[in-house]
């Protein structure tokens, strides 16, 4: 395959994944069709099956790419930010993402529900949660150092809090997300002894 056709294939695949991300988050897994996703991606409906044999496979790819982006973002933060900046971004980024990118949390909720009834998604849910915990644990370790005895457990609690608070805000637009995050931050700082 020449470079031009390889680039076009990668471009088509990227457009399909981006369109799937938007439509799956907007309409839900059961309502979004492969034909609609192809249309939103600007490719022929038959071409989508060249890249993905099923909607399950496409959703898995959407989630894997989102996870890879998050890992790269956390790696960049850890390399470039001070301890104080990392502490702030650990809490401000997920809070701001709820309003900036609510479709990400809708998609996560959709996947959690799917995973409870469709065994095809158990492994991707497990990987997604594990990756999230690992990334957050890395942030917790860099911010807290030795003051945090079990960064993995703290990361699990933070991840559950981030997802749960996002769900509450999506379900109830009047929910006071700022106050909830303030309390969450205070609880974290209490672990550090930085009241």
UniProtKB/TrEMBL annotation:
<dbReference type="GO" id="GO:0003700">
    <property type="term" value="F:DNA-binding transcription factor activity"/>
</dbReference>
<dbReference type="InterPro" id="IPR001647">
    <property type="entry name" value="HTH_TetR"/>
</dbReference>
<dbReference type="InterPro" id="IPR050109">
    <property type="entry name" value="HTH-type_TetR-like_transc_reg"/>
</dbReference>
<keyword id="KW-0238">DNA-binding</keyword>
<feature type="DNA-binding region" description="H-T-H motif">
    <location>
        <begin position="33"/>
        <end position="52"/>
    </location>
</feature>
<dbReference type="InterPro" id="IPR023772">
    <property type="entry name" value="DNA-bd_HTH_TetR-type_CS"/>
</dbReference>
<dbReference type="InterPro" id="IPR036271">
    <property type="entry name" value="Tet_transcr_reg_TetR-rel_C_sf"/>
</dbReference>
<feature type="domain" description="HTH tetR-type">
    <location>
        <begin position="10"/>
        <end position="70"/>
    </location>
</feature>
<dbReference type="Pfam" id="PF00440">
    <property type="entry name" value="TetR_N"/>
</dbReference>
<protein>
    <submittedName>
        <fullName>TetR/AcrR family transcriptional regulator</fullName>
    </submittedName>
</protein>
<dbReference type="GO" id="GO:0000976">
    <property type="term" value="F:transcription cis-regulatory region binding"/>
</dbReference>
<dbReference type="InterPro" id="IPR009057">
    <property type="entry name" value="Homeodomain-like_sf"/>
</dbReference>
């Amino acid at each position: 395959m020449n470079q031009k056709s390889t680039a076009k294939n990668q471009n088509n695949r990227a457009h399909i994944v981006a369109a799937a991300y938007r439509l799956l988050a907007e309409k839900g897994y059961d309502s979004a069709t492969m034909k609609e996703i192809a249309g939103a991606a600007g490719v022929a409906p038959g071409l989508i099956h060249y890249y993905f044999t099923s909607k399950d496979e496409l959703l898995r790819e959407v989630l894997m790419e989102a996870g890879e982006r998050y890992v790269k973002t956390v790696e960049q933060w850890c390399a470039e930010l001070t301890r104080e900046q990392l502490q702030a971004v650990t809490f401000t980024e997920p809070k701001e993402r709820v309003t900036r990118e609510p479709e990400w949390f809708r998609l996560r909720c959709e996947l959690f529900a799917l995973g409870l009834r469709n065994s095809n998604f158990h492994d991707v849910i497990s990987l997604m949660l594990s990756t999230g915990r690992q990334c957050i644990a890395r942030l917790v370790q860099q911010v807290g150092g030795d003051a945090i005895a079990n960064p993995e457990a703290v990361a699990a609690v933070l991840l559950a809090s981030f997802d749960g608070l996002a769900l509450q805000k999506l379900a109830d637009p009047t929910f006071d997300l700022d106050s909830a995050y303030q309390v969450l931050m205070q609880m974290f700082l209490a672990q550090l002894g930085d009241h």
